[in-house]
Design brief:
The chain is α/β, with parallel strands linked by helices and 312 residues long. The chain is 44% helix and 16% strand. A hairpin with a 5-residue loop joins strand 3 and strand 4. Helix 1 packs antiparallel against helix 9, helix 5 crosses helix 7 and helix 9 packs across helix 10. It starts with 18 loop residues before the first strand and ends in a 20-residue tail after the last helix.
Length: 312
């Protein structure tokens, strides 16, 4: 099989580049017509939930601690009031989400879910502070970046865009580790771990990070760090950690598989001149429970493709 290379020379012109991201590729994989409505026709509301609010706020809280810990000292980082930082970040994100639907911000902020999830967040913070050295250690690791942006030119004049939560370097081996923080209710089951759309993210990040910094792929590792809101299990005889690593397969062969998916999406969404293909007939509707159940367009005037036979 011919090796896929998505990296191209940046075009030196005044064009405003369109871009594609991992989330856009996975949206297209789930249902091309959903992508068409959301990105090409720009009909998506873009509003999130209290769960996405919590995820964003928890990211910012952990990242701020790491920024101070590596940039100044562990002692200084430990003086940060992380619960208050989390709460302020959650409120800020709630207001941003509510503004998208022209509300006051009270609906999310004053909900029972807000309080319950906030207290879950405090439990995650307590575990993180207690076990932090197992995951991040200033003696072993060097912090290279937080929220590092990838904005790399690919085929058809399209750029791949992404943000890597945390990048650290092993001081002894020189290996780079790309870490993506994920909040979860109680961890990932086997189906989630094997989901192509989950595994693809860090494989694409690894490929484009390698190109950006000219670092060999075999010197880059990847991992998801899962932050669990709930850890109880009545049948378990031992303590279940609130933080859990998941290292997805990321061999060069595996990366090539995901590059093929990304390449297919780019070629079917954009013209050779880097513009959207604005033809609904080019974006087939993908009817499935996974792609339709939580789709914002399900049952609307924009798409009546899917009807769950039994919704109880």
């Amino acid at each position: 099989m011919e090796k896929i290379n998505l990296i191209t020379e940046e075009i030196d012109d005044d064009r405003k580049y369109l871009h594609i991201s991992n989330s856009q590729v996975t949206t297209y994989m789930g249902c091309p017509y959903h992508y068409y409505l959301q990105k090409v026709k720009k009909l998506g509301t873009g509003s999130g939930s209290i769960f996405t609010v919590f995820g964003t706020a928890m990211h910012k809280t952990i990242q701020e601690y790491l920024r101070v810990m590596f940039g100044e000292s562990v002692k200084k980082a430990n003086t940060i009031d992380l619960p208050t930082l989390l709460k302020k970040s959650m409120i800020k994100e709630c207001i941003k989400e509510e503004k998208k639907i022209k509300d006051s911000g009270k609906a999310l902020i004053m909900s029972d879910d807000f309080r319950d999830i906030y207290y879950d967040g405090i439990e995650i913070i307590n575990f993180f502070l207690k076990k932090r050295g197992k995951y991040f250690n200033t003696r072993k690791h060097e912090l290279l970046s937080i929220e590092e942006e990838l904005y790399i030119p690919t085929i058809n004049g399209i750029k791949f865009k992404g943000f890597i939560d945390v990048v650290i370097k092993d001081k002894l081996t020189g290996r780079i580790n790309l870490i993506d923080l994920k909040t979860s209710y109680s961890g990932w089951n086997d189906k989630k771990r094997k989901d192509v759309k989950v595994r693809m993210q860090l494989n694409l990040y690894k490929y484009f990070y390698s190109a950006k910094h000219n670092i060999p792929l075999d010197m880059i590792d990847t991992e998801f760090l899962i932050l669990k809101r709930k850890v109880y299990d009545e049948n378990c005889d031992w303590t279940i950690p609130r933080m859990q690593k998941f290292i997805p397969p990321s061999s060069e062969r595996t990366i090539q598989k995901y590059l093929a998916i990304c390449k297919d999406a780019i070629e079917n969404i954009f013209t050779e001149n880097g513009k959207y293909i604005n033809d609904a007939n080019k974006y087939p509707k993908q009817k499935s429970v996974d792609s339709c159940k939580y789709c914002e367009f399900k049952g609307t005037k924009h798409c009546d493709q899917w009807r769950l036979k039994k919704e109880k």
